[in-house]
Amino acid sequence: MLKKSKYFVLLCIGFLFVMCNQKEKKNSNNESILKGSTTVLVDETLTPIIEDQVEVFESKYDAKIDIVSLSESEVILSLFKDKSRIAILTRNLTKEENKIFEQKKIIPKITKFAIDAIAFVSNKSNNDTLIDLKNVIEFLQGKSNSNIKGLVFDNPNSSTVRYMNELAGINTIPEKGVFSFKTNQDVIKFVAENDGMIGVVGLNWLSQPSPIMKKYMANVNILSVKSLTDKNYYFPSQNNIAEGKYSLARELFIINGQGFSGLGMGFASFVAGDIGQRIILKSGLLPIRIPGRKINIRNTINNEK
What we know:
alpha/beta, 40% helix, 2 domains
C-alpha cells in the first residue's frame, strides 16, 4: 500500500512538472521579445514616462503592453502574486524580495534606465520658491516648524512616502499636518487650489503634465531645495540631477521576472537603448546614458538659395 502511495505521489509530481513546462512553452511560443502581449506593473509616480515608452515601442513592434499603475507597495504585492512578472520601480529589489524569486527558481533581470527625483510644489500665491530639506524632515518627525503649514503626499503606500520616511528615520508619516490622496495628480490639484500647502510628488508628473493637469500646473511653483549638506538651493533640473546637486534624486529600475525571453526582455532593452534613452532625455528626467549626437561634416558649403 505504501509503495502504491509513493508511486501515486511521484506520478502527480511528474504530471505537474510536465504541465508547468507546457505552460512555459506556451508562453514562449505566444510571446517573444518583440511580439505578443503582456502587462507591466508601474509605480504610479512614473506613469507618464512609461506611457511614452510603451507608445513608441508598440508603434515599432507587433506588441501590446498594458500598463497597470499602482502604489509601490501594491506593485510589489502584485509582482509576487504573479499578476505580472514585469515591474517598474524607483528602487531595486531588497534581499528579502530576491529570496522570493529564488524560491520560485527565477533569477530576475534588473535594468537601471533613468534617474528621477522627488519634488516639492507650492501654491502660486506663495512667493517663496525655496524650501529647506531639514525643515521638511523635522516636520515629518513631529518637531515644531512654523515654516511649513502642511505636507501633501500621493498615497500612504507610495514610493514617495517610503523615500521620505527613510530620510526622516520614521516608520509612518505623522497624522498631524500631513495629508495623503491617491495619485500625484490629486496632490498637484490640491496644492493648486489650496494656499500654504507643500505637495510632495514625482518629478515626472511635473515635467510631463497631462492636458488635464496643465491648468493646475499653471497655479503651482516647483520649489528649489536646500540639501542637508549644502547651503545652496537647487532646482530639480536635469543638469542639477546629473551633477549630483539636487539631493532627492532616485534611480529607476525595470524588474523582469518572466523567466523566459519575452516582452519583458525586449521592452527593457528598448527603454535602455538609444530610442528609449532619447525619450527619457526629452521628458526632463536623466537617462542612464546620454544618447549620442550625429554630426555631419561637409568639405564645402553650398551657398545656393
